[in-house]
Amino acid sequence: MKNYLFILFILLYIPCLSQDKITLSHASQHEDFIEIGIEINKPTGKFDLIDLDTMIVTDDKKNMLKESKEYPLNYNYNNGTNKIKHFYVPDKKFKTIDITGILNYFTPSAANNSYFNLGPLKNIVRNTNLIDKKITEKNPLLYFSILDSTAINKTFPDFKYRLDDDKDYTKIDFESFDIMYAYRYNNKQKLVYFINDNMDPGYNTLTLRDKSTGIIYKLVKLKRDMSSSEKDQTNVELIIENEQSIRRIPFELKNIIVKVNKN
């Protein structure tokens, strides 16, 4: 009986290990940075999000590579299976690298106060912070709001832009966008939004940043010829990081050869 229970435990334990298995996606050296990608075997959905808590890269002589943030990367949770960081190319040559770190596995839920379905756009109050006050009391910097044109004009009263270099500067044509929203988070606590199940919805996005508050404003075209009723039914979901929802997975990858990109 004991042997049977032990075998059953192993059979149950191995799939758990395989689900959390973190492997190297790629390690490549470009002209002025080294790109490291890791991959985890997991579902790709809004309730299975990942982010890098830490990643430390050392060469075969135990020299630590310095992280580079010169190129735009998404330093937030995503629902894919890969996370990437860039590092400066060291002055001294190296043979291999070791990679250690911690991956945050975020499984939001309404029960642990990290998932909020705000519902269809037509029912959402405009120009107000939609994050639960119980959360902002502990972290007042968190912000998410659905906007209308009055909020944009108030924050950026003299803003003009042009779509192409050969066109004149013009004010924002608000009718050309289907949804407008604003957000802010910090390292203490991150947030993610889904709009019609999409983390990065639409196209022809106009992104503005208020330097005085650090709030990011986004104006987005979701779909060509989107009707008013479709806009009204656009669903908005908000996911806010908390300790109850996060599992931290340590990983270690040894003796990695970095492929030199000659392009």
TrEMBL record:
It comes from the Bacteria. This is Uncharacterized protein.
